[in-house]
């Protein structure tokens, strides 16, 4: 996850007319350049504080507690999915559940697929597509039987 606690800079300024300029929140990562930032590099608690979704910056204890909770949840999800796979395998063997069919998707779901297209001697046109007819040499095919 994260290696060190980012340093935090808070600024709330008043301009010459007495208006309060809202604070700007920054997090400076240690040993990292700005262009190397990846989503998830900072804990979610810091992200929420930067975006002003929470009032106070997170504490180290809070970050560690939430990180441990996330790890526990990942482990529980992994355990449950393994149990589910074993249960499904057992039910397949008993014939209670049909095994999933292995379908192959070809083309777009809304477009009908009727198999491999054979080249046609006649040109075809549908909407924006034009496909010229296939060239057949003279003396072959049905053109000579006429």
UniProtKB/TrEMBL annotation:
Mind listing the GO molecular function terms for this protein?
Answer: protein-containing complex binding
Extract the ranges annotated as region (Disordered): 95-146
Record-level GO BP terms: cilium assembly; mitochondrial respiratory chain complex I assembly; negative regulation of insulin secretion involved in cellular response to glucose stimulus
Q: Name one Pfam family in it.
A: NDUFA12
Record-stated family: Belongs to the complex I NDUFA12 subunit family.
Full protein name? NADH:ubiquinone oxidoreductase complex assembly factor 2
Q: Name one GO cellular component term.
A: mitochondrion
Which stretches does UniProt call biased (Polar residues)?
Answer: 121-131
The record ties this protein, via InterPro entries, to: ComplexI_NDUFA12 (IPR052618), NDUFA12 (IPR007763)
